[in-house]
Amino acid sequence: MTLTRWTGMIIGSNGVVDPRAISVLAKWQNSYSIKVVLQELRHLMMSKENMKLPQPPEGQCYSN
């Protein structure tokens, strides 16, 4: 599987989501569903701060 590289306030340069940067993960409760987590990620990714970040070159990939 190939993943396109993306960096931002919630995703570090290694491509891993930083749980400290996402309140729903930092304050995790067993009652949270995947829907709640994905909605919070979507909200954060659409913030003005993240919308201003440059996109990586097309085809740039992660390698593990």
From TrEMBL:
PROSITE patterns: UBC_2
Stored Gene3D superfamilies: Ubiquitin Conjugating Enzyme
SUPFAM superfamilies linked: UBC-like
Residue intervals of the UBC core domain: 1-64
Residue ranges crossing the lipid bilayer per the database entry: none
Protein name: UBC core domain-containing protein
The organism's taxonomic lineage, starting at the top: Eukaryota, Metazoa, Chordata, Craniata, Vertebrata
